[in-house]
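User: Structure tokens for both sequences below?

Assistant:
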Amino acid sequence: MAANSSFPLVRLVRNDTAPQLRFTITDTVTGGPVNLTGATVTLHFRAVNTTTVLLSRQAVLLDPTNGVVILIWLPGDLDQPEGEYEGEVEIVLNTGERETIFVPLQFVLREEFA
């Protein structure tokens, strides 16, 4: 399996807990969804051009047989300086196999007004 997730640039505001990110993990060979039953899907979030992971957030398996997951931001997750960030999606299947989506998700975070 070679997993894939296509996602546009995500625009966020500091300290928000939305939008929730819903995406489907697909097989790059067949184009079909990856069955995530019993798997874990984790987003590792860091600033662009850095190596320090700022947070690792496990996604909720919304429809695991169809590869659908949702990432819910928790209070404090986006308490980060304004700037560009990237997210690495890591999948650990119920067999123990680990696969990371090759292309990181891209985020831009701006300061809140109040």
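Moving on to the next sequence.
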Amino acid sequence: MNICTISSYLNNKLCKIWLLLIALTLLSASVAESDNVSVWATVFVCSIVIIKGRWIIDHFMGLKTASMITRNLVLSYLYIMTAIVAITLIYSQLFFVYPSS
């Protein structure tokens, strides 16, 4: 692979989004795996999940130009599932005491 091919690949919009997805994955994984398990960390990671989900749905699944019913159905699933996970985690963080190791 020569420099011109790499340069043209990096100028591709999907490649930039893919690299941002990787960066956001690493960021959210580092926050989620840290010793700071807090409500704000959960909200931060769930926000990143929403951003990544929207990019994947719009650009990689091609639903940005799909029919509104299909796009809204998939987006609704993303929002509802992320909200369920967030509420469950926040509830467990607020109302259950974890033993310290």
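User: Anything stand out in the second?

Assistant: The two ends are 50 Å apart (CA to CA).
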